[in-house]
Amino acid sequence: MANASDPEEVSGSLSQSAAVSTYIKLVLLGLIICVSLAGNLVLSLLVLKDRTLHKAPYYFLLDLCLADVIRSAVCFPFVLVSIRHGSAWTYSVLSCKIVAFMAVLFCFHAAFMLFCISVTRYMAIAHHRFYSKRMTFWTCVAIICMVWTLSVAMAFPPVFDVGTYKFISNEDQCIFEHRYFKANDTLGFMLMLAVLIAATHIVYVKLLLFEYRHRKMKPVQMVPAISQNWTFHGPGATGQAAANWIAGFGRGPMPPTLLGIRQNAHTTNRRLLGMDEFKSEKRLGRMFYMITLLFLVLWSPYIVACYWRVFVKACGVPQHYLSTAVWMSFAQAGVNPVVCFLLNKELKKCLRTHLPCWGAGGAQVPREPYCVM
């Protein structure tokens, strides 16, 4: 009798542990969906609503947020349904291919966009004159369209069975099936993703070296001129103060030597990067690098598992490691707003300005002059 009851107890304990695991997965994925949708939508509305944020870095950030919103609203609910049905796909094969295509699309979109952002961050500091002239709204639109085109080109071939889009029960999702490198073209996909991530970090390292080389530049010494009967003479009467004012380093009213120049001439074609602008661009670069670093940290375990499948044919990936890697890649969809609001003072001030308006149902509330509607 004792021997007969042992298998029943074992099966009961296994079913109970499976039910607990399913419940934990559902709760975690539901939390990820809520955080991703709420954070990315708030950040997107903030960028769209505030005119002070209508510039190149925030256009790219808006594109990243909207992509995470679509991923959380379209792809993750199918994962919830598959978990609820015992890691099984209950829809058609075509729908599985569409969901897998979108999952791969958003992964490559984030990688391509983060690389483009790293290049623009380097240009904003190292080549500020070119950046301020060329990085217009339509340039940002062209870059975003290029990123989406490249992402579609990378994700679309497996739809025609060049690779394999199918439901992976161990991952609870429809995704590219990573096989041994002689079986399909998964190696090319993974190499492209690894090259993009490596190139992005190389650009940030180059930016860091540029800042390190220029950190000991001496500030301009302002020598006052001597005035007598409206005649200026001495070391300070060389026009250096006027040149510094044009470049953006000056403070206060326009120098007398520049009264014939329009007041807004120094803002439209500035040759040098002012100290305040340099600090602002540096803070933006730090924020975007943290987003890139978290993308690498949260996706690298899954990338390692993919390379494991590509190069190791005999031994499979341990299930606990694979589950952890998959859920870390899911969590990446909700981390960008957290990083932005923690590291960006401009976003935090604008959020505090606009949040009472949204909470009061559009009532008129005094706003700080920092954010303009």
From TrEMBL:
Record's GO cellular component terms: plasma membrane
Localization, UniProt: Cell membrane
InterPro entries named in the record: GPCR_Orphan/Phoenixin, GPCR_Rhodpsn, GPCR_Rhodpsn_7TM
Keywords: Cell membrane, Disulfide bond, G-protein coupled receptor, Glycoprotein, Membrane, Receptor, Transducer, Transmembrane, Transmembrane helix
Pfam family, one: 7tm_1
Keyword Cell membrane included in the entry's annotation: yes
Entry membrane topology: Multi-pass membrane protein
Glycoprotein is among the record's keywords: yes
TM helices/strands, residue ranges: 23-48, 60-83, 98-124, 136-156, 187-209, 288-310, 322-343
Ranges of residues in domain G-protein coupled receptors family 1 profile: 39-340
Molecular function (Gene Ontology), one example: gonadotropin-releasing hormone receptor activity
Function: Is a receptor for the SMIM20 derived peptides Phoenixin-14 and Phoenixin-20. It mediates the Phoenixin-14 and Phoenixin-20 augmentation of gonadotropin-releasing hormone (GNRH) signaling in the hypothalamus and pituitary gland. In the ovary, it mediates the effects of Phoenixin-14 and Phoenixin-20 induced granulosa cell proliferation during follicular growth.
Name of the protein: Probable G-protein coupled receptor 173
Source organism: Ornithorhynchus anatinus (Duckbill platypus)
